[in-house]
Amino acid sequence: MRRGARTAGGAVAACLLLLTAACSGGGVLPARAPDVTGTVALRADGPVLADASDAYFEGMSLGSVQDAAVVRGRDRVAAGVDELEDGEPVRVWIGGGCRESSPVQCDVVALHVAP
């Protein structure tokens, strides 16, 4: 084996190890700005988005985050939708399009409860 190939292989392995370690510390959020921000409002039928930065998303259900990444704080600790509390500030990422209704129905792919 050539020395350069061995060095390149070691560098790739080191990068993968660092990436794995970085991701295991908390939830992964999309590498783009959130689609909307607001606060959690707890309703009888589940949590919804209130005080939305874009009125289009006002009242959108946050219940669909069951299959999404829900993380808390600066350390991005994984959390569940059942841990959301009334009035908490959130950043929300949407995947794909939204279904037109009132309130709008979107597939939430990630939710970050701000510190």
Task: Characterise this structure.
The protein is α+β, with helices and mostly antiparallel strands and 115 residues long. It has one helix at 3-24, and strands spanning 36-43, 46-50, 69-72, 77-78, 89-99, 105-113. The chain has one domain (27-113). The protein has 1 helix and 6 strands. Strands 2-1-5-6-3-4 form a 6-stranded mixed sheet, with no helix packed on it. Strand 1 (36-43) and strand 2 form a beta hairpin. The radius of gyration is 18 Å and the shape is globular. The chain starts with a helix and ends with a strand.
Question: Topology of this protein?
Answer:
Layout: H1 3-24, E1 36-43, E2 46-50, E3 69-72, E4 77-78, E5 89-99, E6 105-113
Parallel strand pairs: 3-6
Antiparallel strand pairs: 1-2, 1-5, 3-4, 5-6
Instruction: Specify the helix fraction band.
Output: 10-25%
- What is the ordering of alpha helices and beta strands? HEEEEEE
| Shape assignment | globular
Mean pLDDT across residues: 80
